[in-house]
Design goal:
The structure is a homodimer. Chain A has about 600 residues and is α+β, with helices and mostly antiparallel strands. Chain A is built from 19 helices and twelve strands. Chain A has four domains: about 120 residues, Butyryl-Coa Dehydrogenase, subunit A, domain 1; about 140 residues, Beta Barrel (Butyryl-CoA Dehydrogenase, subunit A, domain 2); about 140 residues, Butyryl-CoA Dehydrogenase, subunit A, domain 3 (Up-down Bundle), CATH 1.20.140.10; about 130 residues. In chain A, helix 2 packs parallel to helix 5, helix 10 packs across helix 17 and helix 11 packs across helix 12. The longest helix of chain A is centred in the last third of the chain and has 37 residues. Chains A, B: Keywords: FAD, Flavoprotein. Chains A, B: Its cofactor is FAD.
């Protein structure tokens, strides 16, 4: 009933994470060093995150006119996290990193995310700095990224605008060269930015010395117009406070102004902002606009940003998963201790008997088992994807390329599936608590509210689905989908060797066949409007097939003779998934297969 | 895009509500008087409820040590509601009522519930007073019920206790005779009550002169012990302030003390309390215990309470439905006005084109159509059930008895189905809004939070499912289920006459056959532990079949040639339900049919 044993099993017995230290980059690591990282993170999460999860929900960030005020616990949590070294866990030893595999980084992150998803803002800072490590100049890496890894600065991703959320091609923030010498700034080509950025998490706070905004903006052409579409988008570093080329604050405030705090349903520990760039609130260096340094080439902004998208989306999936796990643990604890009612026996109920704990009721078991199957299954998938990231970065060329392509196909699932089904898990966690679950005296209602964000940010459910069915399963001639099917078939074949797993293996084989046929049928007319009319049901079914495969593959690491509680639990959760969940794909896929236009062609006036 | 046209269609064109005035009780009514009631309620809801829905969420009830403080708007809403006469709408003219059919009362209630579900507490007061009209003495009716109908007093239902929520047989509140003359009190046999009651909505406030608590308690036997089980439960009127036999306040406070306010996830406009009865905070008339007057015979408390359960549960279903509708209207409005992205054409998207409103995207249409199908379908079912209540009360004997039995079977669905699927609708309403839906600047997040209560109160989802599969489909030799199947078959036969409806009719016929076979299979071993192991999936499938039938029956009232927007909308929503929703029953029913014990037999240690 705690996260650690599940992580240990998945990492070491299923994914052979310890085997990663055969690779040069991880040669100085071992199961012992991995365990030390997990120990540290587990402890910090327990001491500095979990006790304050409700506090950061009730004491929402507020702006006093000058500063954004956060509970002191938020600063403590940030400092402890930074001090742990986790911000630079994946980086080279040479710059103070641990050269930790991403698989371990992701696993360790689960401790923080289950303890308090919104108190920590580390994810964005690491993503920001990683992007600069990949696409920034030497000076940009040294001045900005390195200071983010140390925790001295924090980072944001400023993509959306009030009028451009899902549709990034419509951003209107403008970047114009800052003076004739704009190209000779040691921090990179210098521009002046003007525009508004919406939904910027951790966009304003006092947790760190400085905030490094990574901002998408368009450089107008000679005619002063912005290029339509995403090709016109470039990427800029816009620090809240200006720095010199050694990263020291110059004492100048950049023209980045808080326009408003967003007041959210959940995830309240993290400030979410509307920022005005270059509106003139903080005039800087005698000209208009916020100063920004271009990263990479003009017009390559989105490509740079998407470089990090897989990890960002796995991060969202992990957040959703962690909330699912947190709700599962909380409701399991409640169910083990709450007496209520009597079991249904062959003769019904006997009121003269004492009450039993609710975990003895079949329906409560069903709700707990569903949560276990959803959230532990999702955790396995997240770690599998993290392992693919390591493969992509450190594997032999062919394996690395396969990992890259598998990630392309799996990322929409890794992001969307936990967002939907671990949210459902949280609803079940409330239900297990009965009326108490509806009160703020128990943590589950907050998990449910926090988790509702994950289907929205970093690309909505609809965006993920269009990406999956419109692009990912067709890219490179469908090679990604074939590769994934190959992995699933390998699992099926191994499972067929074991009589206890044959039923599941056959069910998965049939589901996979159905998924493949449906993918073909969706595109039979080669008309995107028809193929994508039911992209979300397709993604739901695809996700369920992936999760069924994940559970079957996990069972391959559980001995058929193993009778310890954990083994019985995994077998039971997989069985639940195959019996109760996998059959749901039929209803989802049939509308896709016949390219049902009931929704797409429904006339607006008829709503 | 407003509730009224949908209500008008369902009431008059589908259910022939106007035909009710052929009955003696409703003879003075007509479509005109019904419309006048709907007009009034629509106006009060718009003026006194809707504008304050967010306010009552943010200004939660608080206790200042003496009084529970609510926003002034709550008192205004109560007064306007009471002044409308709706509290006594169904009562005889002789006591100031309107003799309005319940069908109309329920329809009118939808205006208030969509406007602000939690500002109004009328539902409980009416239920309380109705119970007294059915089971109270003449004095109890006159002193308590009549003053509730006028809005001078309000009412509660005090069933649950901290240790006894779903399991009412375990209540421990004790009622002992109050003195030797206890049986001669004009207000009824007088007892002294001691115990704690949990989850009491509107349990303490200053909205009315007095609060009439209806309290379940056990009268100890001669040995001082409480009878185990529900047979030992009796029902008592426990007024917050004592009254004389004319209903005038005597100036004495009864010993009912607020022990705490529950702080909830939603539904915050309604105070929810833990009450202590007879703890000695307000000693009264020189003896210990809160004074209560027994209603009905000793041991008959639960029977009296359940008399009103059908209407209470339809009320919950209507609340869930109304919240579903409110979210649908809000997201429809948003989708019609929010520009974002471009449609997918046969050649994909064209970034040079201007953005379109999101209602033009297929996936947004899917989310809107799902909401429409869920919430308008649920509304139809609620009104159908309300019409059965009228039939039960005013129909010819055989029809009345059929209506009673149909209600027995349908009530668990009427309560549970909207609670689950209109909550899902609210989640889709958030999703349509994207990031804005996650903020408290838009109403949809509150609808979602408010709606989460409905799967919990008035009998949880699990309790409804056990009631449905364990009792309702088997009672009277399965006659209720057969009756319902008969109604469905009648709809199917009529639909088969119309080529445009034949596909749906056949799908429903097949689903009904599957449901019947599964019901038999569940009970094939006559072992409740096996039959009920998957009661919730059974109820979900049952509900979907009922809703498919409802939609098909609604379409019978829509001409095949009608091409007005409303007709096209109903046809499209029904089509959505048959294509996307009804096929889901397969996955739910197969575990029921094979009496899958995966959950029930999962060992506790393995979680």
């Amino acid at each position: 009933m705690s996260l650690r044993p599940t992580l240990d099993f998945l990492l070491y017995e299923w994914l052979d994470a310890a085997g990663l230290n055969a690779r040069e980059r991880f040669a100085e690591h071992s199961r012992e060093t991995f365990d030390a990282v997990l120990d540290t993170c587990e402890r910090i999460a327990r001491e500095r995150f979990a006790p304050f999860n409700r506090l950061v929900d009730t004491e929402e960030p507020r702006f006093d006119g000058e500063k954004v005020i956060l509970p002191a616990a938020t600063k403590d949590a940030w400092d402890a996290y930074a001090a742990s070294g986790m911000l630079s866990a994946a980086q080279d030893y040479a710059i103070g990193g641990m050269q930790l595999p991403y698989t371990l980084e992701a696993a360790a992150g689960a401790f923080f995310a289950t303890a308090s998803i919104s108190i920590g803002g580390g994810l964005l800072t690491v993503g920001n700095a990683n992007l600069l490590m990949a696409h920034g100049s030497e000076a940009q890496r040294r001045v900005f990224a390195h200071n983010e890894f140390s925790g001295r600065f924090s980072g944001t991703m400023a993509l959306s605008e009030p009028q451009a959320g899902s549709s990034l091609s419509d951003i209107a923030t403008r970047a114009t060269p800052d003076g004739a010498d704009y190209e000779s700034d040691p921090l990179g080509p210098r521009y002046r930015l003007r525009g508004n950025k919406m939904w910027i998490s951790a966009g304003e706070h006092e947790l760190t010395e400085n905030i490094v905004h990574l901002v998408l903006a368009k450089i107008p052409g000679l005619d002063g117009r912005l290029v339509p579409g995403t090709r016109g988008i470039s990427l800029f570093i816009v620090p809240k406070k200006l720095v010199d080329d050694e990263g020291r604050l110059t004492g100048e405030r950049n023209d980045v102004a808080l326009a408003g705090l967003n007041h959210k349903l959940g995830w309240r520990g993290t400030t979410n902002t509307l920022l005005n760039f270059g509106e003139g609130r903080y005039p800087v260096r005698g000209a208009a606009g916020a100063i920004g340094y271009r990263v990479g080439q003009p017009g390559e902004g989105l490509r740079c940003m998407f470089h990090m998208m897989n990890e960002a989306r796995i991060g969202i999936g992990m957040a959703a998963t962690a909330l699912g796990l947190a709700g599962y643990y909380a409701s399991l604890d409640y169910a083990r201790n709450r007496p209520q009612g009597r079991p249904v026996g062959p003769q019904g109920k006997d009121a003269a008997q004492p009450q039993v704990r609710i975990i003895e009721h079949a329906d409560v078991k069903r709700m707990l088992l569903a949560q276990k199957a959803y959230s532990e299954g999702a955790l396995a998938l997240m770690l599998y994807c993290a392992r693919l990231v390591d493969e992509q970065h450190t594997g032999a060329p062919e394996a690395a390329d396969e990992a890259r392509l598998l990630l392309e196909v799996l990322t929409p699932i890794a992001k969307s599936w936990p967002s939907e089904f671990c949210l459902e898990a949280n609803s079940l966690a409330i239900q297990v608590h009965g009326g108490y679950g509806y009160t703020r005296d128990f943590p589950v209602e907050q998990y449910w509210r926090d988790n509702r964000l994950n289907m929205i940010h970093e690309g909505t459910h609809g965006i993920q689905a269009a990406d999956l069915l419109g692009r990912k399963v067709r890219m490179e001639g469908g090679r990604g989908l074939m590769l994934l099917a190959g992995r699933m078939n390998a699992t099926i074949e191994r499972a067929l060797q074991r009589p206890a797993l044959a039923e599941h293996a056959n069910a998965l084989a049939q589901a996979l066949q159905q998924l493949g046929a449906t993918t073909k049928a969706a595109w039979a007319t080669e008309n995107p409007a028809e193929a994508l009319a039911n992209a979300v049901p397709y993604m739901q079914a695809f996700g369920h097939v992936v999760l069924a495969w994940t559970w079957l593959d996990v069972l391959l690491a559980v001995g058929d003779d193993a009778q310890d509680a954990a083994a019985v639990g995994r077998r039971g959760a997989a069985r639940y998934f195959f019996h109760y969940e996998l059959p749901r794909i039929g209803a989802w896929l049939q509308v896709v297969a016949r390219r049902d236009m009931s929704c797409a062609q429904f006339p607006e006036a008829a709503f």
